[in-house]
Amino acid sequence: HSVVRNALFCLETAANEKENHVYTKALMAYAFALAGKEDKRKALLGSLEKEAVKKDGSVHWQRPGKEPEVDLPYYHYRAPSAEVEMTAYVLLAHLTTQPAPSQEELSFASLIAKWISSQQNPNGGFSSTQ
């Protein structure tokens, strides 16, 4: 359909920009995964991996210039909802591929899922409904 084709053209143009925000890259990686554009998906995921925060056997993404976490006893830091959301989009981009994710992608995806699950509140939800 021409609307979808034009939208993908717009996204491809935006993906070629030098400076894209990490949140934008996460959304575009998932959009290209859904559209079956493997080369674009892989390129964005490669770029995102360079910006990943790898800590305590998990992987996530955060906003550039974010204040460092405060390490207090008996306090479990929960990331802002936008960081949970963009990390979830990267996870979806890793898992949404045809014919199926590679073993390497599944291993990396499990590190992302570990971080996301650590952000759940005691009721099983997250900091917001995003």
Structural overview:
The protein is mostly helical and 130 residues long. A hairpin with a 2-residue loop joins strand 1 and strand 2. The mean pLDDT is 87. Strands 1-2 form a two-stranded antiparallel sheet. It contains 5 helices and 2 strands. The protein is 56% helix and 5% strand. It has one domain. Pfam families: TED_complement. This is PZP protein.
Beta-strand content estimate: under 5%
Mean pLDDT across residues:
87
- Main sheet summary: 2 strands, antiparallel
Radius of gyration, in Å, reads 16 Å
Uncertain segments are none
| Strands ordered across the widest β-sheet | 1-2
In one word, what is the shape? Answer: globular
Number of structurally distinct domains: 1
Protein name: PZP protein
Pfam families: TED_complement
Organism: Ciccaba nigrolineata
Domain Alpha-macroglobulin-like TED: 2-130
Q: Strands, helices and their partners?
A:
Elements: H1 2-15, H2 22-35, H3 38-51, E1 53-55, E2 58-60, H4 81-95, H5 103-118
Antiparallel strand pairs: 1-2
Helix pairs in contact: 2-3, 2-4, 4-5
Give a short summary of the structure.
The chain is mainly alpha-helical. Helices cover 56% and strands 5% of the residues. The two termini are 29 Å apart.
Q: Which key features would you list for this structure?
A:
130 residues; two-stranded antiparallel sheet; 5 helices; 2 strands; globular
